[in-house]
Amino acid sequence: MSNNKEKNTGGFDRFRDRHPILVNSVLMALALVALGYIALLFIDVFTSHGQQVQVPDVRNMPLEKAIEILDDAGLRWEISDSTTFYENYKPGSVIDQDPKAKSYIKKIRIIYLSVNAMHAPIIPLPKLVELPGRQGMATLKAMGFKNVKMDSVPSEMGGLILQVSVDGHNVAPGTPVSVNSQIKITVGDGSIVDLNPEQVLDPALMDSIDEANYKDAQETYEQEMKEAQARAEQERKAQSSEEKKDKDKDKKKDKDKDKKKEQDKGKKN
After folding, report:
1. What are the strands, taking DSSP E only, across the chain?
2. What whole-number distance in Å separates Cα of residue 69 and Cα of residue 94?
3. Whole-number Å distance between alpha carbons of 214 and 71
4. What CATH number labels 52-119?
5. pLDDT band of 97, cuts 50, 70, 90
6. What is the pLDDT of residues 43-81, one digit of tens each?
7. What is the model's pLDDT at position 233?
8. How far is CA 264 from CA 251, 254, 259, in A?
9. What's the CA gap between 81 and 85, in Å, rounded?
10. Do 113 and 63 touch, CB atoms closer than 8 A?
11. How far apart are alpha carbons 146 and 129 in whole angstroms?
12. Burial environment of residue 116 by CB neighbours within 10 A (0 to 12, 13 to 18, 19 or more)
């Protein structure tokens, strides 16, 4: 028995001695096959090959509840945005998620969550009184204030801001105000004209004119008052038309932003 083993071993040794390149090539090929098989096993383990789970829908949930559900599903998560505040969502709730709910993913993928901020940003109110109304509106919107309205009251000077109120209360400049507060800008319409008969007529001549001349002067004064009020009304309508155009432009910009945001999300998915 031992003689047969020795013969076999001796035969292999002789073959290896006679064909060293062939033997080494075969051994290297076997080693490569073994290494490739082991590498595939490790790749399957680390990439969870063939292991997919359905993404749960955690939108509109409080963040704590969403995290609990994702952890129970064995999924990883990260918060991608938590700085923006939306009035239509509860503070601290999940607004959106990526990948989308009910899609199938590998467990190694990360679920990115967009979370509504706990409160709206607070910004000091700028000084606006005596500025033009349109400039005040543009300033507030550029700072991030969302709910800004303008109304007008009778005044001598038209188009200038007379008063600013926040949620129905007069507020001094520099007061911290939420960007979601209701802000109202009160602007003068210029309808009050400071005219009187003494301005129309020279006081020194009042005693020397007769009643007919006085009536003519009175009629002239009344006519000037009507013309001044008509001009003020025309300016008010023109200003309202400009404000409506600005609002339409802002709405179009908001729609374009929302459309772009949806397109970006679609590309990302």
Report:
1. 52-54, 76-81, 94-98, 104-106, 110-115, 122-124, 147-153, 158-166, 169-170, 176-178, 182-189
2. 13
3. 91
4. 3.30.10.20
5. very high
6. 555 554 556 888 999 999 999 999 999 999 889 999 988
7. 74
8. 20, 15, 9
9. 10
10. yes
11. 19
12. buried
Report which listed range, 97-101, 105-109, 242-246, is most confident.
Answer: 97-101
Residue-level length of the chain: 269
CATH class, domain 122-267, is alpha beta
Q: Tens digit of pLDDT for each residue in 116-163?
A: 988 888 889 999 998 898 899 899 988 888 899 999 888 877 889 999
Amino acid at 265: K
Task: Find the distance separating the first CA and the last CA of the chain, reported in whole Å.
Answer: 70
- Gap between the Cα atoms of 89 and 66, Å rounded: 15
CA distance 81 to 7: 75
- Residues with Cβ within 8 Å of 107's Cβ and at least 6 positions away in sequence, in order, are 48, 51, 53, 74, 75, 76
Q: Which two tokens stand for residue 155?
A: 């005044």
For residue 70 the two structure tokens come to 């994702």
Q: How far apart are CA 103 and CA 118, in angstroms?
A: 29
124-153 b/e (C-beta count within 10 Å ≥ 16 → b) = ebeebeebebbebbeebeeeebeebebebe
Q: What are 179's two structure tokens?
A: 């960007």
Does the pLDDT of residue 198 top 50, yes or no? Answer: no
Tokens at 46, concatenated: 């680390």
Q: CB count, 10 Å around CB of 59?
A: 16
Q: pLDDT above 90 covers what percent of the chain?
A: 23
CATH 3.30.10.20 range(s) for the chain read 52-119, 122-267
Question: What is the C-alpha separation between 185 and 169, in angstroms, rounded?
Answer: 12
In one letter, which amino acid is 31?
A: A
